[in-house]
Task: inverse folding
């Protein structure tokens, strides 16, 4: 005991905070300055960060203007954020009537538990929660569109980030099961099923999403009798879903191919029927392996929802463009509005990314 | 006394494309018999037993298992698979399920047993193969010998009439082979009908009622272990035995 204490006192800086400092500096040394190359790169990186970060902070905060009624009143050399408090609602809700914002807010608030029960296990009230998640899409449709006592809101008033969320999330949740069915169909032994799956996948993958949106909005109308009109937003959501499911099908098919033949054989040998072995044995393993590809497709899909501007729906990017060409703000708010759009997209996409990493860790049963 | 064979194979022929892998196989296996099939690589022994539970399709000839003929009729295939258990060389345990769930899966979904009963049955068989303490582990956490014993327990849970073994110890480290063979010897002593493809001649001489030697898709010779080892008739059999028993 005494020896150890003496030893401790002999190390320079050897009180407990001293030892922590020692550990920290040695960590820095090890990770950033371990050899000449690393040290040079570290210095370079710090210079780069400094030269990028400082001007950015100057622009965004220190030299920025936060108040004003028009672009002309933004006289600062930095960013003009004056439009934020007046226009944020358009960016988030589009043209949704302002008295009814509470319905959108409620829909988003309820999305949290609905998603929670789908994505996580072992939460309290698990059973009720899962039924709630199943029922949520109908609840959301009711809240957003109205009817049964709530004032109706037509879909052409949907806009802003809310539109991206509606189109993106419904695309995500519908494209995964559809993609799985297509992937299984493509591997089917029945020729008709296989050829139809291949046809669907190649057609929807082979054309740009914009053309599909055009077809949905303009060309489809030519083929339908004039009395029949399907809501424009629904047509868009259907096309986005079909497009994403073609990509998803190939991602899932890759996962299915990665499962060793022995798994299929063991399932067959014990008498499991096709759908039983797919559901219980093959898909859990195939989906687990495909998580990076699936999340990739989701993130791409979510960002693709900005294409709705082409057919006259004003999502958040559309709102940004509107504000940029507004006479009050013209020429003053381009970077700022794009920055807001980028920030909101980044938050959603990064969250999806982090969730997927968590999911992979949880499913990794080898450890 | 039931005199009809549990497995009856007549004039079985199979091709992989142009390659004639099984040539005019005739074989009868009675209930409770333990058959060891051996032979050089590529002789068709694995293919033969995989035809019995329809993991491979035969083009010509008849396979009758438990008096059900094996054809394209899905119902027949399902009925046969319920009664025929299979143990693979690469174990093929389901890595995303625990050991216990691996065993109860078929009981719950094929035999439609309630979960509690399935778990009781599964634990009983895990005890028989001497790894009940691993029930809640995942296959990736077990050694090869343990995994193969779980695979055997998993098949036994379905209480099949016939057990097929496709080179069960070939993928195991030598020190684990014994623990798996012990389980198989134990199983043999309970009267199970077993058809085992293996190179373990020690096991064959201890347990087999008949040893079948295959080469190039044909059954060359079959005999009791004593006769097979001491009095091989065919030149090819003698060659094979000299290679196998040399080390």
Result:
């Amino acid at each position: 005991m005494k020896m150890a204490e003496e030893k401790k006192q002999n190390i320079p800086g050897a009180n407990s905070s001293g030892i922590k400092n020692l550990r920290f500096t040695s960590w820095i040394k090890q990770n950033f300055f371990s050899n000449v190359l690393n040290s040079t790169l570290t210095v370079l990186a710090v210079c780069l960060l400094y030269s990028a970060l400082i001007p950015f902070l100057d622009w965004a905060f220190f030299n920025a203007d936060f108040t004003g009624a028009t672009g002309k009143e933004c006289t600062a050399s930095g960013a003009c954020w004056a439009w934020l408090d007046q226009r944020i609602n358009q960016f988030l809700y589009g043209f949704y009537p302002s008295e009814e914002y509470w319905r959108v807010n409620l829909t988003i608030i309820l999305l949290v538990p609905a998603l929670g029960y789908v994505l996580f296990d072992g939460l309290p009230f698990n059973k009720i929660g899962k039924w709630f998640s199943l029922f949520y899409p109908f609840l959301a449709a009711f809240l957003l569109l109205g009817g049964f006592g709530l004032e109706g809101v037509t879909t052409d008033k949907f806009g802003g980030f809310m539109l991206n969320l509606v189109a993106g999330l419904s695309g995500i949740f519908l494209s995964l099961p559809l993609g799985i069915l297509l992937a299984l169909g493509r591997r089917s032994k029945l020729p008709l099923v296989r050829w139809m799956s291949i046809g669907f996948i190649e057609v929807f993958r082979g054309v740009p999403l914009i053309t599909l949106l055009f077809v949905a909005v303009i060309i489809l109308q030519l083929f339908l009798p004039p009395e029949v009109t399907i809501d424009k937003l629904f047509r868009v959501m259907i096309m986005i879903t079909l497009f994403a499911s073609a990509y998803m099908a190939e991602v899932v098919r890759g996962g299915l191919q990665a499962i060793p033949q022995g798994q299929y054989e063991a399932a067959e040998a014990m008498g499991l029927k096709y759908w039983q072995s797919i559901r219980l044995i093959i898909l859990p393993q195939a989906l687990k392996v495909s998580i990076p590809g699936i999340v990739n497709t989701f993130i791409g899909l979510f960002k693709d929802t900005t294409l709705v501007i082409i057919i006259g729906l004003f999502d958040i990017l559309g709102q940004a463009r509107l504000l940029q060409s507004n006479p009050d703000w013209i020429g003053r708010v381009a970077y700022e509005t794009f920055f807001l759009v980028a920030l909101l997209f980044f938050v959603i996409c990064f969250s999806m990314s982090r969730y997927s990493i968590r999911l992979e860790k949880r499913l990794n049963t080898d450890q | 006394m039931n005199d009809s064979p549990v497995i009856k194979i007549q004039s079985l022929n199979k091709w992989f494309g142009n390659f004639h892998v099984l040539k005019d196989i005739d074989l009868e296996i009675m209930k409770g018999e333990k058959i060891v099939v051996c032979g050089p690589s590529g002789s068709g022994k694995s293919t033969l037993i995989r035809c019995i539970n329809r993991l491979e399709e035969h083009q010509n000839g008849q396979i009758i298992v438990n008096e059900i003929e094996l054809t394209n009729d899905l119902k027949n295939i399902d009925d046969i698979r319920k009664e025929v258990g299979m143990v693979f060389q690469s174990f093929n345990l389901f890595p995303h399920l625990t050991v216990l769930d691996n065993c109860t899966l078929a009981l719950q979904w094929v035999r439609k047993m309630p979960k509690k009963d399935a778990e009781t049955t599964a634990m009983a068989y895990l005890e028989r193969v001497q790894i009940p303490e691993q029930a809640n582990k995942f296959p990736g956490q077990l050694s090869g010998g343990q995994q193969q014993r779980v695979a055997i327990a998993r098949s036994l849970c379905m209480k099949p009439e016939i057990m097929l073994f496709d080179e069960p110890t070939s993928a195991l480290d030598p020190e684990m082979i014994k623990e798996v063979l012990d389980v198989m010897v134990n199983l043999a002593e309970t009267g199970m009908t077993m058809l085992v493809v293996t190179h373990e001649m020690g096991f064959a001489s201890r347990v087999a009622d008949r040893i079948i030697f295959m080469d190039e898709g044909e059954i060359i010779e079959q005999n009791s272990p004593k006769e097979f080892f001491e009095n091989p008739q065919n030149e090819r059999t003698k060659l094979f035995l000299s290679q196998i028993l040399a080390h």
Remarks:
- The mean pLDDT of chain B is 92.
- The interface with chain A takes residues 53-55, 78, 81-82, 84-86, 88, 90, 92-96, 105-106, 109-110, 138, 140-141, 154-155, 158 of chain B (CB under 8 Å).
